[in-house]
Amino acid sequence: MFPWNKIDTVLLDMDGTLLDLHFDNHFWLSLVPEELSRQKGLTSHAAQQLVESAYQKVFGTLEWYCLDYWQKELQIEILELHRTLVDRIQLRQDSMPFLTALGEQGKSRILVTNAHPHSLSLKLEHTELERGLDMMLSSHDTGYPKEHPEFWRYLFQHFSLEPSRCLFVDDSEAILKAAREAGVGYQLGITNPDSQKPDKVFSDFPSISDYHLLLDDLLAD
């Protein structure tokens, strides 16, 4: 699928790409409205509408991914609420075999995530993900989400990367597009970010549902 001899660095999203997105979907779409309903005495429907309206206002911006923003906006203890669900934070079953194989082939493995640093820290604490990575960058450290070209400029400069020799893996077609426009040489979509939901269809990028499909070619490089 990819010319591995032309790829030095693999840039990897976290939620939905290396970790099961079920945790985040359950948290933001179920637990947060439930907590708002409980605290503010709203009906479930009213709480759901309030949350959806708040999400739509900042979708695709850095605030969308910012725990501090949501704590202030919704007036609930977002990080403490996260901690009540830590048993749902799960690596995808195919992530570590892929990360291990990348390391064996001398590829640099960089996590590039829109996750807030507090969320990133919590997920590293409750998984073995960190041992499969060489470096990591949260978009909150750059001031721009991955949807923005400035994020990519910062990333390339910070890690002294040659964009054309990078592969970027993500479960969002919009973000894959941003990476391609920024000059990243290769992109790969993940069709099954949430283990509890149907697969997605990517119209403009190669995509897979299991990293094991890449291992033969990668290890033969």
Gist?
The chain is an alpha/beta fold and 221 residues long.
Oligomer: single chain
Number of helices: 9
Mean pLDDT: 95
Main sheet: strands, sense, barrel: 6 strands, parallel
Classify the secondary structure makeup into a structural class.
Answer: alpha/beta
Q: Which stretches are low in confidence, meaning pLDDT under 50 for 5 or more residues running? A: none
- Taking all Cα atoms into account, the compactness measure Rg is 18 Å
N/C terminus separation: 12 Å
Helix content: 40-55%
Along the chain, the helix and strand elements come as EHHHHHEHEHEHEEH
Portion in beta strands: 5-15%
Give the total of beta strands. Answer: 6
From the spread of the alpha carbons, the general shape counts as: globular
Strand order of the largest sheet: 3-2-1-4-5-6
Polypeptide structure, described:
The protein has 221 residues and is of the alpha/beta class. It contains 9 helices and 6 strands. It has helices at 22-40, 44-58, 67-74, 78-83, 95-104, 117-125, 149-158, 173-182, 212-220; strands at residues 9-12, 108-113, 135-138, 166-170, 186-190, 207-208. A 6-stranded parallel sheet has the order 3-2-1-4-5-6, with helices on both faces. The longest helix is centred in the N-terminal third of the chain and has 19 residues, at 22-40. The mean pLDDT is 95.
